[in-house]
């Protein structure tokens, strides 16, 4: 399978010529090197449901979703897509799509309903569920790719010591992680310690949009919090928890189990609004704050200089020992890419043209507040009235910019010494506002977006990025956190009406299935200028 390198060398430079405004028309599995892995990602709270069954304990998301006003449309994950009961059917869906790897997370409170062994026993039914799922995947030729923590802290630990605000979480998290290695590691060879520490920290403790819903009370909707400090404390504890889990895996399990371990980072891309030094520097500050805050410690052992300068005594410090230990604590880096924005220096954002660009569409992070805390920078998704890309599926701030994945991969390669990468999430959103089902099923924009991302990933690989696989979010629609069920990102539509929960393939599922099972000769990725 795959193209001989001479062909790749002939065809791929096309990308270099047509970098702007390109349109990927033909790409499939055979465009990629042999062994490149494709798959899908989900997380426990977003798909499993069965929230109050078989001894599962509560997590901060169960609590947060119940508070009126927190979730668009008022939903919660009690039933979600009901994967807990439908995993066999879903494994067949994954198989028919041509999936190599399936990334799912393990619900901490399903394994330890009390948060840790200190608070009671392991829940055998929870363990059984994940054993069943793993076995079912393997029997169908799909490799499990497990996320240990995808935002669902057991509520007991939040009550007891404030969850990730306290260093005490590190012991409880690593006990849970070790339990997973011990119990599932004979069959699981790919581990993600933490999903998107930055979103967990900023949305949970900065703007309060996600569980546990903390932020500075002054002007915000939160009951308590400190947006200027807590996100950094939480980020720091997440990194230390990651480091401890990797240490345990490497010292006790890796040699025998022969797996790899990494972390998934939220990694949207940022471009300078202009080529002025002010905007270029502001863009670097934002990248340092969003990505470097996590990736610099992992690769270099410390936070980026600009972050330390700007956050000063609000930023926790790594001891010498921790710095040594965190450096290199990964076998791969997972990158989750969804969108991009322009960045301008804060001091320039009152200029009338710039101001109107910000007002028209303030950028990805906080549509209602385009300023990114602690960066002296402002985001916008348009420049001189022209958008960076089209909005996705009716969500105004969610700008489609597939080229961002290439720019991100280039940056990670150049700045961080070409680490092995899995793109652990890429996805395209559609807002469900009651449009006819047929319109949602005909998701041609999603197909084009995925194709473009594949082409840009290939281009980055051609230029030296070490990308091992690409996972889409996701094979089904699911509970999209504070956006509830109104944001649909699946290749299959899930019919939530009356808990019917049928999975109905969208056009993208049919396209993906064909792209993963190409029947003819290898396909060169072909680009056209629209
Ligand atoms: C998260 C997922 C989420 C996806 C789409 C990512 O930031 O890891 O949990 O569903 O974005 O919104």
TrEMBL record:
PANTHER family: BETA-GLUCOSIDASE 11, GLYCOSYL HYDROLASE. Keywords: Hydrolase, Signal. One of its GO terms (biological process) is carbohydrate metabolic process. InterPro entries: GH (IPR017853), GH_1_N_CS (IPR033132), Glyco_hydro_1 (IPR001360). One of its GO terms (molecular function) is hydrolase activity, hydrolyzing O-glycosyl compounds. This is Beta-glucosidase 13-like. Residues 1-26 form the signal peptide. It comes from Nelumbo nucifera (Sacred lotus). Residues 348-380 are annotated as: Disordered. Belongs to the glycosyl hydrolase 1 family.
